[in-house]
Write a structure and sequence with these properties.
- The structure is a homodimer.
- Helix content of chain A is about 45%, strand content about 20%.
- By secondary structure, chain A is α+β, with helices and mostly antiparallel strands.
- In chain A, α2 packs across α3, α3 packs across α4 and α3 crosses α5.
- Chains A and B meet through β4, α6 and β6 of A and β4, α6 and β6 of B.
- β6 of chain A pairs antiparallel with β6 of chain B.
- The complex binds zinc ion (4 copies).
- The structure holds a DNA duplex.
DNA sequence: GCCCGCATCGTTATACTGTAACACACATCG
DNA sequence: CGATGTGTGTTACAGTATAACGATGCGGGC
């Protein structure tokens, strides 16, 4: 059942056998089952495409890739799948890039048994575009404290730090 | 000289004599002069419109308002002005809303003699939409520390906290 | 004065991002 | 069987942002 994407390795010209992607998909499946949500084939395909990419993917870039698997795909096709995956906490949106990335914690079955939406932050390199997700508790606490200081009840925070990654810093 | 916008108070049906807006515009003028940048009439008009609003304004909402002052205005007209104002640190963009707000620190001539781009965070109320800018040092330090912990050099951070403002919390 | 380069702005067209609305297939339940 | 709910296909559109080219105006070198 998990098979079916045998074409993935040859489709984009890159060898992406994606062993960890398969693992992440299985974890996503389990997680959705627990939440009473259906990870349909379409949603799994979109999630797979997001996970296969090492960079954030825009909705339309995703749509182009999806069309290879699903010729009739249109914007709502991908946006609806993205909405579902966002709600399940399987992916995040990078607001500065209008793009989507897989949640690094989604693979950890254990961790938070609760539904979703863990605090997270992004580090976006201006030179190479690499975007990494971190989950820094000190940052989360500082945000919560800053909000409470003015009587604000924080529910969710978008934190996206732009700068230079270690690799690009070393190159300069 | 500050006159010329006598129509402002009657244009949108609200009485917005905007005494502090005039002050902020004067401060912006001084600041641009110091930076060797030209706060032209167009840019001052756009800045004025942003400052007059107590809520974040989208580029096209801004364009609509600008058309009253400048009938030929088109998208590039407002986007170019916004780019300038962003570079000068006179306004900020709220990424989650695709909207722009005046910088609360822009009025403070004193403060940072340096050019621009102070660390800041937004508190966005989900109920009433009110968006408040704060500049919390603890948050800024936590972000810097989190970045350095993974060898990342932070240059600028987007921090937008969604939740419920004090007023809306009390109402519930 | 004249030419040139630069910054600003006007204008048109287009690209990119995201949704509304309606139809159909299917599953579940009374 | 009809009703309801979810997921998807399909068309059209709304909202956000930029590319490209031209015109103007101003300052500096010749
Ligand atoms: Zn995550
Ligand atoms: Zn880099
Ligand atoms: Zn500010
Ligand atoms: Zn509120």
């Amino acid at each position: 059942m998990a098979a079916g994407q045998g074409s993935a390795s040859g489709t984009d010209g890159q060898d992406t056998p994606a062993p960890d992607v398969a693992h992440a998909l299985a974890a996503a499946d389990a997680r959705c089952a627990r939440a009473g949500a259906q990870l349909t084939e379409l949603r799994r395909q979109v999630l797979g495409l997001v996970l296969e990419s090492d960079q954030p993917l825009g909705a339309y870039a995703l749509l182009d890739k999806l069309k290879a698997l699903r010729p009739g795909a249109a914007p709502p096709t991908v946006y609806r799948a993205l909405d579902f995956l966002l709600e399940q906490g399987l992916i995040h949106k990078v607001e500065r890039l209008n793009a989507f990335v897989g949640c690094v914690e989604a693979g950890h079955d254990h961790a938070h048994g609760h539904d979703h939406h863990h605090p997270h932050q992004f580090l976006i390199c201006r030179d190479c575009g690499t975007t990494v997700e971190i989950s820094d508790h000190a940052v989360a606490h500082a945000l919560e404290a800053a909000a409470q200081r003015v009587g604000f009840t924080a529910i969710q925070a978008t934190v996206e730090i732009e700068g230079r990654c270690a690799t690009c810093s070393a190159a300069a």
